[in-house]
Design goal:
Length: 240
Amino acid sequence: MEQEIISQAAGVSVVDFSMWGLFMRADLVVKFVMIALLLASFWSWAIIFDKFMRFRRVIALADRFEEVFWSGNSLEELYERVAPRANHPMALLFVAAMREWMRANGRSTGGTGLSGGLRERIDKIMSVTLSREMSGLERYLDFLATVGSTAPFVGLFGTVWGIMNSFQAIAQSHNTSLAVVAPGIAEALFATALGLFAAIPAVIAYNRFNSQVGRYGDRLEGFMEEFSAVLSRRIEEEFD
């Protein structure tokens, strides 16, 4: 308060350097850049939270499913338990393969027995299911990659635009004092700060989730190959 009185008495206007003050004084183009970066940051954090919870869930469910799968129980019994509530990629792989196995074997649809090429059909169905589930896990990761790579440049554009406006204001006022230059430069640099604020978490999250997708995909492929081998042995034992 005392500083405001002294500044007013000296004829110097007090400049608000808070985030809100910088935003309100910014040019319309710079405001648009700031709003776009804030929205991108908000959406990125929503994706990060969703992906974190989803990966944590599917990994835990996969651990429990593999424990039950390798416990020695009958495949048909496990299928009856899992099929109505399969809600994660590994269980969906198992259910898709077992459904085709039971359909061809005449146990669920009353067919006439094993048809030719059952192994190939089961492998194809599991491959299609794997591809679909992996696409679901990778969903929105491209948005994080886009924000991480473009947000700093969008912020830099806002900075360049703001600095251009500051130089124009200096030329019009014929005053190069720090009190005239500082507010415009601060507004411009605020756009770059927002760009980095949006980009850094997005890049970190993208790298982490992309790595998790790769590891989980390898785990699903390993399970698919092992389960395919189990079914192949069943086919040879029962029908060859």
